[in-house]
Each structure stands twice: as structure tokens, then as C-alpha cells.
Amino acid sequence: MNHTTIKVLCPIALMAASCAPSSATGKLPPLASEAEIDSAEKAPVIGIAHEAGWNAPSEPFTVAGNIHYVGTKAVSSWLITTPKGHILIGGVIAQSAPQIIANIERLGFSIRDVRHLLNSHAHYDHAGGLAGLKQASGGTMIASAADKPYLEAGAIDHGPSAGMRFPPVRVDRVIGDGDRVSLGGTTMIAHLTPGHSPGCTSWSMEFKWKNSEHRKAFFHCSSTVAGQSLTPEAYPGMVAAFRSTFAKVRAIKVDLFLANHDNFFDLDAKRLRQISGDPEAFFDPHELQRFNAELERAFEEDLARQQAKLKMNPATR
Ligand SMILES: [Zn+2]
User: Fold this and answer.
1) Mean pLDDT value across residues 7-30
2) Which residues, 6+ apart, have CB-to-CB distance to 226 below 8 Å?
């Protein structure tokens, strides 16, 4: 994709001089060059990303209120529209940025009106497209302190995703637990839910439904172990982080549970019900709790299995 019409770029050769990052002006060039982003977007989709349909095309649609799905077949990207510009959550893989931009346009909106980019966590299947989407929108990248280094490095340093590089993206604003991102009458609240990654961030928001009634949506970061080592921990404090996240999410009540992979929230089945005429196909006030309980059970089983294995073969410690 050609991003040359967007003027936030600096030629890489100039970055050491006049285009050097300047925190005083806030005008910071992107960390990945235009050429790097272009080449990442055009690279073939291989391995698990191909098999799982992470870049397979998907029809964009409105979930409810001002919440729209603009992601791929198997990885979510959410567009939250407001009269003052939009918020985008999730960049999918690097090759997905052109598709996400096209999906936004198919719904009648423009990537150029995206003011803020949010993300669940810094794994390549959710962060890979962010550099291209930031470049195309000129929006600010907002993320947690714990995942910021990974987004800016374009890689995570532990677990099965280690070594899966993606175009690095600069984080313009760091958020903490309970921090708010407000735009055009919509407020996104950050919920730090570490475990799956050290800075895993879920987001919640209220939206208008049936004129005056307000409903609450939750964009879950994920609490799967996903093949990461719990014994020893892939990163310090990982087991405690998972457990505190399960406890925290137990206290959250929402009408709409949305997640970052289609199979986590039965996207296809709900979309079919919606097309068949059910405007509340995505509403389920108990789904977040069911999901949280299921993931907590799976986590404790995984931990017990890994601990048992370690006892059998302490040499692997
Ligand atoms: Zn992940």
C-alpha cells in the first residue's frame, strides 16, 4: 500500500538530522520506515497465520451503536466512530493494514479520521498492522507501559511469539489502569489485564442503544497461556499476573463481550443471527464471566500440568 500521501513520514536518511525524534515538539517520526511497512504489508502470509486465516478477508459490519468490526476472518480490529474522529483497536498482522483500511472505507468512514490507535497486546498477530495504520491515519498510538517496549521493538522477548517480528510502532501515550481516552462523546477506559502479555490491556466503553439507554462493551485482551512457560515463568510475576487478572475481570459486568480472535466470542454464529434480524445478537451479559471462568480453569490446569512435568524432570528447571 502506498502511504506517500500521509505527511508524517521522514525519509530514513534524514532521521539523524532535521527529522530526528523530538519530544519537545511531539512530532515524532514512525519507528518503521515507509519502505519497511510497505514490504511487511506485501510479504506473503505463512505458517500459523495462514492456516488460522489471520489475514483472510472478512466483511466489515456494525456490531452495535458506534462499534464496528473491521478486522479479518480470525483476528479482530474494532472501529469506534464519533463525530470528532474515530478510535481503532487492534492492528492484526502487518499484511492486514490495507484490508483494515479498506474495511473502514466500505463502512463509509476514513482511516484519515482515526485519531487514536489502541491495542490489546504486543504480539505480532495484534500489533503487526499498527505501524501501517498509524502511518496512514496520523493518529496517536496509546498503550500500556509494560507492552510499550515490545511495540517499539517490533518483537516480544519471550514465549512462542518471540522472534516473530513486526514493524515497530512508536507509543505516543502510555496509559495505566483506569485511564481514559475520550473523543467525541465516547470514553474508552483502560483495564490492565496482564498475563497473556505483561501489558495486556482490555478496554471498556459505554454506547447509546435504543435512543437513551446506555450499554457497556468490553474488549478483552485475552487470558490464554498460549503455549508460554509458567514454570519457569516466561516473564517475572506471570502467574500472579494471570491470577490477579482473573479476579479483576470477575468483578466486571458488561452487556457486550468482544475479544481479539473470532473464536473467543463466536463471531460467525452471532453475525449470522444479526443478519437474520436479531439486532442484539452480540449482547450477552453473562458471556464475559463464562469466558473468564473457562480461561481461569484452563490456566490452572496448564499450571498444574507444567508443575507436574517439572517434578518428574527437575533438570529442565
Ligand atoms: Zn497474543
Assistant:
1) 41
2) 159, 160, 196
